[in-house]
Amino acid sequence: MTNQIISDLKELMTTAPAASVNAAITVSGAADGYVARPSTLGTLFVAFNERGVSAVDLADSPTDFEDRFAYLHGRQALPVERLPAQIEGHLDSAIDTGKPGRLPLDFSELTEFQVAVLRKTAEIPGGQVRPYGWVAREIGKPGAVRAVGSALARNPVPVVVPCHRVVRSDGHLGNYSLGDSDNKRVLLEAEGLDMALYESQSERGIRFTGSDTTSIFCNPTCHHARRTSAKHTIEFRSEHEARRAGFRPCKVCRPASAAA
Amino acid sequence: MTAPNLSKLAGELAADLDGAFAAYVRATADGIYSGSLRMLGDRSDAEDVLQETYTRAYAALKGYSQERVGALKVRGWTWTIAANLCRNRLRSRARKPTTPLDGIDVAASGRNVDDAALSKIGADLRAALLDLPFPQRAAVVMRHVLDLTYEEVAAALDRPVGTVKADVHRGLARLRQEYQEEEVR
């Protein structure tokens, strides 16, 4: 009888769920964990480690994502089911709003300049866009417009840090690193940007709009600019033109430095 | 989860903790999960214990000298962490009972509850195990489900080898009793 019990007890050995084993491995930092999340663009793969979210990517399959992650980061990403609490609580809203909020992000592989670019980009509200030059000026490197472009092209956490809201100063949307380049437009439209108005203005070379009741000029997608009725909206092709008309830059969207 | 594999692990962890950690987890996780599951009877709890065990193991290994890591009996040492976590979890469960209200069959309700697919004998045995007092349950699970040595079990539970042997003996006797009752019915 006892022997029977002992051999029955051996049968109670089982295997741990693969996702849990993966999650346990990630605590060493030797590998990151990842989950898949639905989004406007399709399935987003989100990798994380002890420091925070390390990658957001679109991929056709988990294997594609894992391969690209390993290539870019030099370590594995393993599928897990549960996210650490500090990520779980903020990830979905960060994806929905395109704003990191309190979601921890792992910027440890980036340069100080890249981090400054990403943090500034994260301040751009949903449905609005700013030129690359705006980011460069805002972080105190007005000459580094191209460098801003390449920093954003290597944004490890697109959508969550909304690099889709940074566009060329001629009004073209510019490149986008996450999947199809049309995704930039898809995201901006989903956020409520009036694409028809935006394109009509950029085709005509309009860089700023102002209100003749306040004499303040804005980036055309600033919510103060959009609040202005068509009757009172004045369009400008340059900062110089706006200043000459006696307008000062908006303090919220800061279309130009405050000093003339 | 073969023994030679495990005996090499300590040396590998000592030489390169980050490089060998994944292999260490893969070699020991089934045991930690199975043991926690049989001690706690709940998958979600067992997964939590698994995660917490390796979080603590990694932090501890990082703080140890190379000599100390190299000399570890990896499986038994990992169980010193896991057994503590299982015991604490049962204690906090006892303090604030969340689930079983009278009349609700826990085994039949939540999806977190242990796999129903196991044989009838497995189900009876699992239930009987959960009725044992924790020291006996832990000792029986580690000795006979996981096949740890008495020395490893004693170290993991921080009790003398003789006490552990007695607990295993008493635990098995109680399981046998329950089994016989089953057969008589």
Task: Please give the share of residues in helix of chain B.
Answer: over 70%
What is the assigned CATH homologous superfamily of the largest domain in chain A?
Answer: Winged helix-like DNA-binding domain superfamily/Winged helix DNA-binding domain
Instruction: Count the DSSP helices of chain A.
Output: 11
Terminal residue distance of chain A: 94 Å
List the uncertain runs of chain A.
none
What proportion of the residues of chain A form beta strands (DSSP E)?
15-25%
- Report the count of strand segments of chain A: 10
Give a brief rundown of this model.
Chain A is an alpha/beta fold and 260 residues long.
Q: How would you sum up this structure, described in words?
A:
The complex is a heterodimer of chains A (260) and B (185). By secondary structure, chain A is α/β, with parallel strands linked by helices. Chain A has eleven helices and ten strands. A four-stranded mixed beta sheet of chain A has the order 3-2-1-4. In chain A, strands 9-7-8-10 form a four-stranded mixed beta sheet. In chain A, strands 5-6 form a two-stranded parallel sheet. Chain A starts with a helix and ends in an 11-residue tail after the last strand. The mean pLDDT of chain A is 92. Chain B is mainly alpha-helical and 185 residues long. Chain B has a single domain, classed as Winged helix-like DNA-binding domain superfamily/Winged helix DNA-binding domain (Arc Repressor Mutant, subunit A, Orthogonal Bundle). Helix content of chain B is 76%, strand content 0%. Chain B has nine helices and no strands. Chain B has helices at 3-15, 17-40, 43-63, 66-70, 74-95, 120-131, 134-145, 150-157, 161-184. In chain B, helix 2 (17-40) crosses helix 5 and helix 5 crosses helix 8. The longest helix of chain B has 24 residues, at 17-40. Chain B is globular. Chain B starts with a helix and ends with a helix. Chain A binds chain B through residues 1-2, 4-6, 8-17, 20-21, 23-25, 27-31, 82, and chain B through 17-19, 21-22, 25-26, 29-34, 37-38, 47, 50-51, 53-55, 58, 115, 119, 121-122, 125-126, 129, 140-141, 144-147, 172, 175-176, 179-180.
